[in-house]
Write a structure and sequence with these properties.
Elements lengths: L14 H20 L19 E10 L6 H21 L3 E9 L4 H12 L4 E5 L4 H13 L4 E3 L15 E3 L4 H13 L7 E5 L3 H14 L3 E6 L7 H11 L3 E5 L2 H13 L5 E4 L7
Parallel strand pairs: 1-2, 1-3, 3-4, 4-5, 6-7, 6-8, 8-9
Helix pairs in contact: 1-2, 3-4, 5-6
């Protein structure tokens, strides 16, 4: 087989990394919100936790539970569920409900969810939104409602520049992730020409631009795979015509496998690297 996969020479980032990391991030996000329920026994003159008594409180997770990117979204919801269950076990007299909101990864649905959640005084905060695009669309509504949002997975650096006072995130932004990725790829001893491809999402386009700009002159192909831009066959034609030695794909899982299969089908010998968002199970 002439296709030369990344893992023959370079370390491979497998899905065993991404999913546990997201679960941990979601647990941390939910735990941070649940800390708002905390209290201390001041009469005891120390910091021993007091018995928490509360009811009718909710935290929400906002992520894609259905649709092509549900693999990542369900991991986010699972992490939030773990944190809520652990809190319930530690504080049985303070019951907090988890509302798992399915955005489908669609910005308009995230906006609708943000408006609904923002109208309920019982909601303490949001674990999510899960994706950069839906966070950019819904963030202003959550911020106006005063709802803390802690995303375990949205990485576009633009999100931190919106002036939102309730926005927080756990992962590093794309400019940091992209810089590290570009440095590794550019340091390969037999780099050759490089193709940088993204999936047209806010996340994919953002990290692809960072990688392409950092690699510089070695980038021979810079394309976007999206229905309203150009299709995968056209992009693969450009990659084959440029005789690239390395391909970097930035985007989500739903298209990453198609890119790998298409390259293999054309007998490309290029190494394929993908962004961490393509490994979400």
């Amino acid at each position: 087989m002439s296709y030369r996969p990344t893992w023959r020479k370079e370390p491979q980032m497998t899905s065993t990394y991404r999913a546990p990391a997201l679960v941990v991030a979601a647990v941390l996000a939910a735990a941070s919100i649940l800390a708002a329920c905390g209290a201390h026994d001041e009469s005891a003159g120390n910091d021993r936790p007091a018995t928490l008594r509360c009811s009718g409180l909710t935290i929400a997770s906002m992520s894609a539970l259905t649709g092509p990117e549900a693999g990542l979204g369900r991991v986010v919801a699972r992490g939030a569920d773990i944190a809520v269950n652990e809190f319930a076990a530690a504080h049985p007299q303070c019951r907090v409900r988890l509302d798992q909101v399915d955005t489908g990864g669609v910005a308009a649905r995230a906006v609708d969810a943000a408006r609904r959640l923002g109208s309920h005084r019982s909601v303490l905060g949001i674990v999510g939104p899960g994706f950069s695009g839906e966070t950019l669309a819904a963030g202003a509504f959550l911020d106006t409602a005063g709802l803390p949002m802690i995303t375990p997975s949205a990485t576009n650096p633009v999100l931190s520049r919106q002036g939102w006072t309730t926005f927080h995130r756990i992962p590093a932004p794309d400019d940091d992730l992209g810089a590290v990725t570009a440095r590794y790829i550019a340091g390969l001893p037999d780099l050759g020409r490089v193709a940088v491809i993204d999936d047209g999402s806010v996340y994919g386009a953002g990290i692809a631009e960072v990688v392409a700009s950092r690699i510089g002159g070695a980038v021979a192909v810079r394309r976007t795979i999206a229905p309203d831009v150009e299709g995968l066959p056209t992009v693969i034609d450009a990659v084959m015509a440029a005789d690239v030695g390395t391909v970097f794909y930035a985007g989500y899982e739903s298209d990453s496998a198609a890119v790998a299969v298409a390259l293999r089908g054309r007998n490309s010998r290029a190494r394929l690297f993908v962004s961490e968002g393509a490994l979400d199970r």
